[in-house]
Design a protein that fits this description.
Order of helices and strands: EEHEEEHEHHEHEHHEE
Structural class: alpha/beta
CATH class: Alpha Beta
CATH topology: Rossmann fold
CATH architecture: 3-Layer(aba) Sandwich
Number of domains: 1
Strand content: 15-25%
Number of helices: 7
CATH superfamily: P-loop containing nucleotide triphosphate hydrolases
């Protein structure tokens, strides 16, 4: 499986990431070319690029943010939207604490498929998964095919948080991730004994090598940074396609 790691978020004076108290696993889902990878890149690296290769399987990015006075590392798995990768993507739902379900406001079909993505997420993820519905590309409002009110109504009916973003301008991109993290924080940390329920089993507080399969919320008892976002690169031999993807539009 081809993987790429993005970001690391704000750094300390010595170039390292801030120490963090908890690690939340997020998954980004939705149709192909709705801008999932661009949202992740904008969140982790504060940059936008006009073209990139189609996501094959999953890509990985992380950033440390402050939620409720605690430093929390968001470990984000950006998934491919093509049907042929669905079987691979399903394994990444396991243990996810939060999900960003993304559609393109200029493509009615991507919104029509949101119900199926939501059904799949709830069938494969933990029961307490926090889901934020994200209508991307609101900088292209002249081409809008899905109204804000329609997206909001769907989210309310299905128990999701909702907002619209632009990966191009960065509008509400941070909020999409941080608000989801706030909801996870209040649902999983303030309402439970995190130290006993979600303690990291590895010495030193590091996630296991196959961390995408682990529980979506971890404490970091040593308050030391995750090194490199470890994962198993030998799970699948699919290679990244060579064609460009104009998903960010």
């Amino acid at each position: 499986m081809s993987m790429k790691q993005y970001g690391g978020g704000a750094q300390q004076a010595d170039g390292s990431e801030p120490a963090y108290a908890y690690l939340f696993k997020f998954i980004i889902i939705g149709d192909n070319a709705v801008g999932k990878t661009c949202l992740l890149l904008q969140f982790t690296d504060k940059r936008y690029r006009t073209s990139h290769q189609v996501t094959v399987g999953v890509e990985f990015g992380s950033r440390t943010v402050e939620i409720g006075g605690r430093m929390i590392k968001l470990q984000c798995w950006d998934t491919a939207g093509q049907d042929r990768f669905r079987s691979i993507v399903r394994s990444y739902y396991r243990g996810a604490a939060g999900a960003l379900l993304v559609y393109d406001i200029t493509r009615r079909d991507s919104f029509d498929h949101v119900a199926q993505w939501l059904k799949e997420a709830r069938a494969n993820a933990e029961p307490d998964l926090v889901i934020t519905l994200v209508g991307n590309k609101n900088d292209r409002y002249q081409e809008r095919q899905v109204s804000y009110e329609e997206g909001h109504a769907f989210a309310v009916q299905n128990g999701c948080h909702f907002l619209e973003t632009s990966a191009v301008t960065g509008h509400m991109v941070d909020e999409a991730f941080t608000k989801t993290a706030e909801l996870v924080f209040h649902k999983n940390i303030l309402s439970s004994d995190m130290n006993s329920q979600y303690a990291v089993p590895q010495a030193g507080g590091y996630p296991a090598q196959n961390s995408y399969l682990n529980s979506g919320v971890h404490t970091n008892p040593s308050s030391i940074k995750l090194q490199g976002g470890r994962y198993d690169q030998n799970q699948d031999q699919n290679r990244r396609q060579e064609n460009n993807d104009s998903c960010c539009g």
